[in-house]
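Problem: given the chain below (244 residues), write out its structure.
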Amino acid sequence: MTRKKVKLAFITNDSARKATYKKRKKGLMKKVSELSTLCGIEACAIIDSPYESQPEVWPSPAGVQRVLSKFKNLSEMEQSKKMVNQESFLRQRISKAYEQLKKQCRENREKELTQAMFQYLTGKGLNNLNMMDLNDLSWFIEKNLKDIIQRVDTLNSASHSSQGPAASSSTKMVTSEATTSGQNARAGKSGSETNVDRIQRQQWILDLMNPQDLVGFGGDETMHPFGDNRPNALWSNAFFPWEK
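Solution.
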């Protein structure tokens, strides 16, 4: 048989309150004793109540004095290091809950963008997305492309290293010259490529906003919008800084 949940409120009945005090005081003293024995620590307990003429102490007045003296010898910073009141405890809980909420919102946003990306690849339009959603989607696609390119480079490096030093000196010279010329070409075109990439991304966003020119397979199926119906959504560009 399960125990009835006790309501944490002041007990108005005097006899019931006194009985609860005696029962819970005994349990509290037992818990302190068990904690001290199991963990090998010094602990004490002092309970003052209107039902007894003298405060109840554990383990003894001398033991309480010893623990209190040891505590008072600590610096003020050490004494208050792990102390919390109700306000600070609630603030910590709220801060932790808010961080968890932000993490969950980011995960949900990434799942929505992944779904939008795959729906676009199957030919479905993105005309129900606003500019903020398109910016997030652009950033998300670029991030995935960078991850893919980095993975391909890693695999190519591993493949070349497994072949060993079998290449001839002439091949190394040609590779070195090609690398040098490639670096010079990239250095000369870096500024123009940046502008071209920016223009291409803007044109890509405009194409997304006008899907009637695309040839697809999905027909006119609707896709749940990301931002149209929630202008004050928790997942704004603060989660996806696609351009800073």
